[in-house]
Design brief:
This protein has 2 helices and 17 strands. It is mainly beta. It has a single domain, classed as monomeric porin ompg (Porin, Beta Barrel).
């Protein structure tokens, strides 16, 4: 309980520190910022130059995954992420895993027929196996992502390809969609890790609530329909996972 309280207090301090800026910007009728990712899958969206995003994901077993992302150039985002297992709740021991880098460069803004395109690298994986010292679900690795509005205003299609294992050089795919309703709530759906049966695909779905244009709350379920185990010594359970994410965007 103390750990949860500390996390909430830290979030409150961050929000209060920038509340006056947010209020002034809201008076000017600012829209919500483009999504840089869905649940796991990236989009072609990027942070603006001097943009800053912090994201906190609470996942199974009391773990917390933290992301930092910076708009260091007009089209270039750099960031890092790190997981802490068993941080929330009574589980033990609390373990910090090594940080992973993330980078994204948007090289095309899109046209009538061609979607916006971005290339990037994401090292963060999921389900860390301490025995083998690796993630059971590998990081996305090198990827190409595209995003385009289709048919209906605010209905976006996303997709791309990635290479997560440079030893095997398997090419994976991902597709997804998002629909934003009146800049208040967005519905997210993605089908990830496609093409290779040895690395099972993942169906994820969720809702993104825009509490303010700069602060969002995500409620999602990963691995929908799964009921099995990972192929590791511990036979780690692989089943649907409920996650909660908080995202905060600002400028520096």
């Amino acid at each position: 309980m103390k750990k949860v309280t500390l996390c909430l207090l830290a979030l409150t301090v961050v929000l209060m520190a920038d509340s006056s800026v947010m209020a002034e910007k809201n008076k000017n009728g600012d829209m919500v910022l483009p999504d840089t990712e869905l649940i796991d899958a990236p989009t072609a969206g990027i942070l603006d130059y001097y943009g800053f995003m912090v994201k906190t994901r609470f996942y199974s077993g009391g773990g917390v995954l933290g992301f930092l992302n910076f708009g260091v150039q007009e089209r270039l985002n750099l960031g890092a992420s790190m997981t802490v297992d068993s941080l929330v709740g009574s589980g033990s021991p609390v373990k910090m895993r090594k940080p992973e880098i993330r980078v994204k460069f948007r090289f095309y803004d899109g046209g009538y027929y061609i979607p916006a395109l971005a290339v990037g690298y994401e090292g963060q994986g999921y389900y860390y196996d301490p025995a083998d010292k690796k993630y059971l679900e590998k990081g996305r690795g090198l990827y190409l992502a595209g995003s385009k509005e289709i048919g209906v205003p605010n209905l976006m299609a996303h997709g791309g390809f990635n290479v997560s294992d440079f030893d095997k050089n398997y090419l994976f795919g991902f597709i997804g969609a998002s629909y934003t309703l009146e800049d208040k709530v967005a519905f997210l759906l993605e089908y990830d890790n496609l093409f290779h049966s040895a690395e099972p695909s993942r169906l994820n779905a969720g809702t993104r609530i825009y509490i303010t244009p700069y602060f969002q709350l995500d409620l999602a379920v990963r691995e929908i329909g799964q009921n099995g185990h990972f192929d590791n010594a511990l036979q780690t359970s692989r089943k649907p996972e409920r996650i909660v994410q908080m995202r905060y965007n600002t400028n520096f």
